[in-house]
Model the fold of this input.
Amino acid sequence: MLKIIGVGLAFGLGYMTAYNDLFTYVLQENMVLHAFFGLAGCFLFIFVPLERLAEKESIQHPISPMRTSAREHLQRRGSF
Done:
């Protein structure tokens, strides 16, 4: 379901961009172009390696299925 929503959203944003001629505006405005490349650089050099590091850590230290829930803790103490 999320893929269908994503495709619909991408189509809608692409249509609005083409209809309003935003791509040529972005190419004409120097500041907007610099901001776009700055955000793309942040994404490529910060967020992508951070996501890979988080994935590696989650594989090395998985959440064990033997943990007790808060409800179980309360039942053991007699508070629940």
Summary: The chain has a mean pLDDT of 80. The CA atoms of residues 10 and 66 lie 42 Å apart.
